[in-house]
Design brief:
The chain has three helices and eight strands, in the order H-E-E-H-E-E-E-E-E-E-H. By secondary structure, the chain is α/β, with parallel strands linked by helices. The protein is elongated and about 85 Å long. Helices cover 28% and strands 38% of the residues.
């Protein structure tokens, strides 16, 4: 029984660290017509140069898995932008002392934060139809971000972010 409880707690904690994604798309577009892509001509992700290179590598690998190839005459442009923000942790443990008598009571309570605030990286990936010059698909992925992570950890994080983002492409009807 202890093992089951331990596994449940581990699953709950590990699910909190997984990237979360939101998808949106133009439902009038036939996504089967796109088979080539290119990075947006004015590509500026907002990441450091090293992190941007890691993200682009992850993106190119992910696009290949999706069956899209890089081309000088693309069907879609891929644009990425990002932002970092502090996640406000509202979790705490409450403690209290109280007492009561016949016709009255007194109580004192307070909260102790359970976790420090964490940095969250939000990455938005846009697919833009080149011929129509219009946004046709978008994914917004949020993931906890450790600014002190090693290059290998950062590469793995961007792989996870891109994988999560491209899970929603092409959109399922």
């Amino acid at each position: 029984m202890k093992l089951i409880k331990l596994l449940f707690v581990f699953a709950l904690l590990s699910s909190c660290n997984a990237p979360k994604a939101i998808y949106d798309y133009d439902d009038t577009v036939n996504f089967n017509t796109y088979n080539t892509y290119q990075l947006f001509p004015d590509f500026q992700s907002g990441l450091s140069q090293l992190d941007e290179t890691r993200l682009i590598t992850s993106l190119k690998n992910g696009m290949e898995v999706q069956g899209l190839s890089n081309s000088e005459e693309p069907g879609i442009y891929v644009n990425v932008y990002s932002r970092e923000f502090m996640d406000q942790n509202r979790s705490n443990v409450g403690i209290g002392i109280g007492g009561g008598g016949r016709h009255g009571g007194v109580g004192v309570s307070g909260g102790i934060p359970m976790e420090n605030n964490s940095v969250v990286l939000e990455v938005t990936i846009d697919f833009i139809d080149v011929a129509e010059d219009s946004l046709v698909w978008q994914s917004v992925v949020e993931s906890k971000f450790n600014p002190n992570a090693s290059p290998e950890q950062r590469r793995a994080m961007f792989d996870k972010i891109v994988k999560k983002a491209l899970e929603g492409y092409p959109p399922k009807e």
